Amino acid sequence: MKIATIILNVLLLIGLIPSILAAMTSPMIFDAGQSSHLWRVFWTAVALPVVIVVCQIISWIAFYRDNYSMAFKISLIPTVHVVVLILLMLTMNGTVTRGPSSQNTEKKTG
Questions:
Q1: For this UniProt entry, which segments traverse the membrane (predicted)?
Q2: Residue 43 φ then ψ, to 5°
Q3: Is residue 98 one of the residues assigned to a domain?
Q4: Residue 99 in domain
Q5: Any bridge partners for residue 97, and if so which?
Q6: How far apart, in whole angstroms, are the C-alpha atoms of residue 101 and residue 92?
Q7: In 3D, which of 16, 44, 42 has the Cα closest to residue 31?
Q8: Per-residue pLDDT reduced to its tens digit, 6-29
Q9: SS3 (DSSP) at 34
Q10: Residue 101 located in a structural domain
Q11: Range of the domain at 9
């Protein structure tokens, strides 16, 4: 359990950089319009770096107190967060409500 916890924590720290980039670019998800589902995806993406950092701190505290089982379980929380984010992104089809500026403004001829 000790080595698995260390490997998982290293992988999460490596994944912190892409999650920060995803959080910074997540406001662009609203370019096509807004919906409550997009807001859930947005807040999940923004919260991911925070969840990784907080779980890393708590996990390493548990690790140094020789509680390897708890440290491993806490390290799994960001992994669950990533799975939820992926599931939310996969279910985004057709959830966008377009505003009046994106409606078809072509004039009919004839």
A1: 38-63, 70-92
A2: -70, -30
A3: no
A4: no
A5: 34
A6: 21
A7: 42
A8: 999 999 999 999 999 999 999 998
A9: strand
A10: no
A11: 2-92
